[in-house]
C-alpha cells in the first residue's frame, strides 16, 4: 500500500515538474528578434503623455512596431540605404504593425515614428540575405 502511495506521489510530482518545463519553453522569447531602442526627439511638453513605443526586427524580413496608450494616426518612416519608405498605421489605444523590409538593401536604417507632434526615433540593421 505504501509503495503505491509513494509511486502515485512521485508520478504526480514528475508530471508537475515536466509541465512547468514545457510552459517555460513555450513562453520563451524568440532569440532571433533584436529590439529597436527608441528615443523621443523634440516635441513639446504638452501633447501625448504615457505613450510607449517598441519595436523589434529579425534583421532580414520584418520590423515589428507596437504603440501603446495613443489614439490617432502613427506615421512610420524608414530612412537609409539610399532609400526611404513611409507607412501609416491607425492606433486606437494600442496598435501593432509588421513591416516587410525584405526588399530593402543591406544597410543601417533610421526608423522614425511620428505621433501627433511627438517623434520617436531608433535604428536597426538590415542584413544581407542569401549570398
If you had to describe this structure to a student in words, what would you say it looks like?
- With 131 residues, this protein is α+β, with helices and mostly antiparallel strands.
- It contains 1 helix and 7 strands, in the order H-E-E-E-E-E-E-E.
- Strands 1, 2, 3, 4, 5, 6 and 7 form a 7-stranded antiparallel β-sheet that branches.
- Strand 3 and strand 4 form a beta hairpin.
- The radius of gyration is 22 Å and the shape is flat.
In short:
This protein is an alpha+beta fold. The protein is built from 1 helix and 7 strands.
What labels would you give this structure?
131 residues; alpha+beta; 7-stranded antiparallel beta sheet; 1 helix; flat
Unreliable spans are 20-31
Strand content: over 45%
DSSP strand count: 7
The secondary-structure element order is HEEEEEEE
Total helices: the number is: 1
Estimate percent helicity.
Answer: 10-25%
Query: For the report, how would you describe the main beta sheet?
Result: 7 strands, antiparallel
Morphology = flat
Task: Tell me the layout of helices and strands.
Elements: H1 2-26, E1 34-36, E2 39-41, E3 52-57, E4 62-80, E5 83-100, E6 107-115, E7 118-126
Antiparallel strand pairs: 1-3, 2-7, 3-4, 4-5, 4-6, 6-7
